[in-house]
User: Fold this.
Amino acid sequence: MVKKVGVAILGLGVVGGGTYQTLVEHHDFYLKTQQVDISVEKVLDLNLERLKALGVPQECIAKNIEEVLADPNVDIVVETIGGIGVAKTFVTAALRAAKTVVTSNKELICKFSHELEKIAKHNHCGLYYEASCVGGVPIIRTLLDGVQANHIQSMMGIVNGTTNYILTKMTYEGADYAEVLKEAQKLGYAEANPTADVDGYDSMYKLSILSSMAFHTKIPYTKIFREGISTVNVKDIAYGREFGYTLKLLAIGKNSDKGIEVRVHPTFIPTNHPLASVNDSFNAVYMTGDAVDDVMLYGRGAGALPTASAVVSDVIYAATHSDIKYSTFKNNATAESNVKFVSDFASAYYIRLAVEDKAGVLAKVTGIFGKCGISIVQITQKNAESAEDERVPLVVITHKTTENAAKNAVSKINASGIGSVEAVIRVEQ
Ligand code: HSE
Assistant:
């Protein structure tokens, strides 16, 4: 029997517009394959031009949220507004009105899923957010269903398209960060205020959601170590490639006997690692489970139709399942008290120094690393960058050590008078 389901879309921007288009164009396909008759009953957006451009019929245009929620034909509310202002107010109101919510809003889910899930459970409705992480890549459904048989030991993801686009251009065209950022803004990848992407906040919100699901415990974003790409120098990308490494902004989550470590930072990975070939605005998540071993999901992490693909899949799931699947972890505001977090995590390091080119300097540098208990794998002196520059770059690759030991070595080198540390990049093998 065909089930009739009514949808309202709040916010008809890039993702909301793609969702509207997908639902309208694929209506008959879903009817045939899923036996659901999904109709867009209401849309809410202040920009009437946008509504006109998409051909939204006049009778579907709502004046306010009250009108949307009072419509008995609306079963599912799609929130594609973004942010945690009006979006949170509308989502809360929709759940209180017992409407199932589908959202693409990572900041909202990262910061408030505990509150929203409680309201959803109380009102017996669903809260789905596949589109909040990694756009069209079905990572949330994979974590909820596909890999449930496993203890997930680690996940490493390229979960932000803007920064991956910028790093790809810097890697293969030798372009400067500032230059590529401008180009990314022109192409519409990077926002006018690019902070959320380039400083790693976007990746941090996504890692908080994904690692909570992977490790079955709440990982608040405040527990995540975060460093963005705005200080990455194109020189280091080129030197790293000489050592066989490619630079990516990775979201890393690990769960071991020592505890849980979660971090977002520029990372060198071996150039033959599957994540190293994820380029441009593409995203991927590479994870390891104790039964399945390695799994990698790859695809478009942003864009109108790829993200709409995730939104509409949630709509179809909600429309075709009478039982509701919530998160598998105790969804509180804070982490559970018995969960240990590792802040002094272990990593190998790429460290670039600028030093005077004279006898005894190398011995002093290696002496400091030795005193800090850090073993060196490789050390290379490069040519001075200009004839006037009296200092030369010295690039050190270390064995695995700890974050604190590396920080200790960096401050000792800076205090020693033999040179300065110009770049520190973590290396994952
Ligand atoms: N701004 C994000 C990115 C897309 O660049 O990947 C939405 O999550």
User: Anything to note?
Assistant: The mean pLDDT is 96. Residues 160-162, 197, 202, 301-302 surround L-homoserine (CB under 6 Å). The CA atoms of residues 42 and 390 lie 67 Å apart.
